[in-house]
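Lecture notes, unit on protein representations.

Consider one protein chain, 345 amino acids long.
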Amino acid sequence: MKKSSSWLFITLIAIIGVVFIDGFIRFFLVKNIEHDADLINNLGIIRGSVQRISKLETNNVIRDDLIRLVDKKFQDYSPEDQDLGLNSTRYGINFAKLKNSWNEFKETLQNYREKPAVEAKAALLAKSEEMWDAANALVLEAQLISEMKLKYYQLFLFSTVINILLLFLIIIFVKRYVRDKLELMAIYDPLTKAFNRNYLKEFLENEIKRVERKSRDLSLILWDIDHFKKINDTYGHDVGDLTLLELTRIVKNSIRKYDVFARFGGEEFIIVLPETDIQAAEMLAERVRKDVEAFKFKKIGHITISLGVTSFSIGDSEETMTKRADIALYKAKNNGRNRVELEIF
């Protein structure tokens, strides 16, 4: 009996040791994956921002804040960063190529600004596509490395009898602390917790298919903060981020539960309004505008927003609806800001 108890004690100690080691590895893995997911998300921001910069520039809209944003992403996510979750020679080479491509893109952009000829525009768009390809290659590389880590960890699990016995608990852990976090990061903006642009695109595409089948109403509100750059320049980006957080809460309280609220980029946001015609959308946009105008924000006081409203027309796509809302937003800006404008197909 004593001998059996000794073996049981040794077995329990061994299980505790394996669980401790396994727990440590799992903890390290979660942190590492969070690094990787954050990196992949920000590489996607670089990829999308370059496309947006070139599109806006060719439409005579200068967004130096986006250029600074991309510069900051390159600085924060350099392979030399010791906190980075990835470690790959090929990744470092691809990152260097992307950064060189970005510097060339900025030179091409400067040439286009100085002399916006047809050739300069074509060169800018071509360089934008080259940047997209380079960024996409880096995203795929980052995803591959992250997936390799997961595969290695799974191999470790199946290499021990104890981990096979604990497999059910490990699956629960991974589901709760890894997969759910990655899913949330994939659809929510990390700062405001509004839906991100990827989720918006998917939702709007599905919603358009639905209204086409059932001949229902669908409207969009695209809005941004008036003179947001001045807020950042005057009070700093921390106050700018705080303003975005407060503003998000105000707007969420102003819209309906089934409306979809997403961050479109920077200080631009979109509200998707299912089962809503253009008149009702205009009324809701005006309510949001008034609620924001009446609110006193911490440290900066009162601010205003400009809003562009459009509704679904037969043949619309996610891109055409968003573009039309963007046109309405710029009308609001050009007509004095702090107002709602409509753009109907």
